[in-house]
Amino acid sequence: MIRTSTSQDSVGFQRLARSWYWEAEATLESAREASRGIRDFIADVGLPLDEQTAWELLVSEAANNCAVHGAVLGRACKLDLLVTVMPEKVMLRMGDTGPGFDWPDTTDLPDETSESGRGLYLIDTLTDARHYVRAKGRNVLEVERLFATPAVLEDQEETLRTMTEELSSCYESLSSIFHFISEARSADSLESFASRLLDHLTLCTSSDFGVLRVMRDGKLETCALSGVEDFSPLGIEEESARDFLDRWFTGMQHGFPHGPTLTGIVHPFHHHELELGSIMLGRYDESLPFNAVEENMIRTFAEFFTQHLLGLQHEQAAIEFRVAQREFELAAEIQRSLLPPEQEPERGVVATGNCESALSIGGDFYDLIPIAGKGYFFVLGDVMGKGVAASMMAAVTRSAVRSHAEVYCQPAELLRRVSEQLYEDLDRLEMFVTLVVGMVDQETGEIRVANAGHCPVLVTQGKATILLEPENPPVGIDPRPHYPELSVKIRESVKILAFSDGLVDPRNKRKSFQDEHELAAWWTEASGNAGHADELKKLLLNHLENDSKSALIADDQTFIIITCEPQPI
Amino acid sequence: MNIETIEKQLKVSGISELSALNARELKSEVIKKFDSGIVDIDFDASELSFIDSSGLGALISLQKATSMRNGLLRIIRPSEQTQQILELTRLHRVFEIVA
Q1: How far apart are CA A258 and CA A249, in angstroms?
Q2: How far apart are the first and last CA of chain B?
């Protein structure tokens, strides 16, 4: 099938170069037909005999190669040629569906007695530039040959006209791009922008129709149409988007709903290895294939659209990130609001605490609830993990504890109930919570603590500190747990420290404690130097370098400090 | 394609194109008539308007056949285009060319 496009006026656009298109199954006969065809075409445009001979030989060598080596497993190799005569050169793009080969770095002549091996040498010698792309399903050879002297297409006037038109085309592309930069800013959607761009491109290239599709979830979806009703992507559109190679077509196309005959081009657009979509433009007159200048215009528009598409994708990603960040901030705000405010002492019991998350939200929490006439009930928990999931489970655990107010004074019973209540959810989520609950009870003159796998509670009286160690696993491990109640009599001034393991995490970038024993030693000494809960809190925060927020901590750091003096029972 | 025997010489003429399409045919037709008495081949290229690398390969093959009998392959009156391709591939040094 042969088509020749010559200079002629058409609606809104003038063809700027001469082109010749040919396609057939690759055989030695068709290869010869192609080489004769290009010789006649080169002669028709007025190029000298040297050029005719050179191109006849070039095409013969390239096409013979496909005919001889192109067939695979009995499947014939298809061959197509697009030749374009420019003012300073002739360009050939030859596509074939054969297995292809690796173009050698050098193409030396073989030994003088060798009967083969001169084909690539001739192609190399007769051309000024070569580019060969081997790909699955389609190989493309592009060669060009510069004229020794400025081409005389028919006469100097014709040459000047062609050059002027080419410049006009470049100007038109450039002014269109400027126009669409402005359009892109005001477009209310990708589809409306794509539609305006495609209409413009269709007009500029004198196409009868255009289809612009973008890749979504691995499938081509129609984004804009011009001069045609929507239809499912054609096989050549999918192939082109997949292998990033242009496709030219002539004649009827399976799946195309309009026109018995047509000619056109499919140009893919992509970003690195990411498939983004394709633009297809076509004409119903198959004798008017697109020439090189028009193809360049299509590529320019496609590149511009690609940049716009990438810009939108980045913008969308930035919006999603900002939304996620805002939600994270809200979650952190909610978590902070669940911490108890500073409260008045209750029956001489003073309680305070602090919670700092390694991320903006975390799995540590504490609660301090004054019990009228008795003292304070306290809770400190640490949900495994960090971030949103841990913070949600921390809020759930806090609520579960608060739902058992009737047993605040019986920490072991409360811990058992909470543990049974949360077991099913924690087990399903494969999470657990270390939890310590306690009651500083001036009514009975004792401190009662129950500990589910959490760090020990330090109770200091005088210069002696005892560690109320956990004896049972964390909440969420055992469906029917039993927690012993650990009890200490209040005999003199008492300082209590409950803390999370973030205080003794050696991975912290700030100063912290190496282990529980180092912390216990520090606490004993600090308790001797400071009498009030707030003073002890300040000392502890200073020790933990809490004011240097820029240094990261590896885990959430939470603690409760309670002080009280013995009172008459 | 005309192949004529004159004493110990084969004269091949009437070929306008020598390409991958007919190179094999030329070789087999000439070799068929290349009996024991033949030594030299004269290839009349005056009508040859196109030759490609396969055509050149066929001529080299015939040249090898003649040299095995201490004979010659002569290319007679090649056109300017044919002469250019022979020079481009440096085969003008291999064949005897008669202007």
Answers
A1: 15
A2: 21
How distant is the Cα of A119 from the closest Cα of chain B, in angstroms? 6
Which tokens go with B43?
């290839």
Out of A64, A109, A113, closest to residue B54 by CB: A64
Residue A427 neighbours by CB under 8 Å, 6+ apart: A476, A479
Ordered structural domains, chain B, with CATH: 2-98 (3.30.750.24)
How many Å lie between the alpha carbon of A120 and the closest alpha carbon of chain B? 9
Query: Which residue, among A103, A12, A114, A115, has the nearest Cα to A62 in the 3D structure?
Result: A103
- Nearest by CB: A28 against B21, B56, B91: B21
What does DSSP say about strands B2-6 and A486-489: parallel, antiparallel, or unpaired? unpaired
Note whether A61 contacts B21, CB cutoff 8 Å: no
A117-176: pLDDT as tens digits: 999 999 999 999 988 888 777 888 999 999 875 545 455 566 666 666 666 666 666 666
Which secondary structure element, helix H or strand E, spans residue A314, and what is its range? Answer: helix A292-337
For each of the domains in chain A, give its residue range(s) and CATH number, in order of start: 2-146 (3.30.565.10), 156-315 (3.30.450.40), 339-564 (3.60.40.10)
Query: For the whole prediction, is pTM greater than 0.80?
Result: no
User: Residues of B at the A interface (Cβ-Cβ below 8 Å)?
Assistant: 17, 19-21, 50, 52-54, 56-58, 60-61, 64, 81, 84-85, 88-91, 93-94
Burial class (CB in 10 A: 0-12, 13-18, 19+), A3: middle
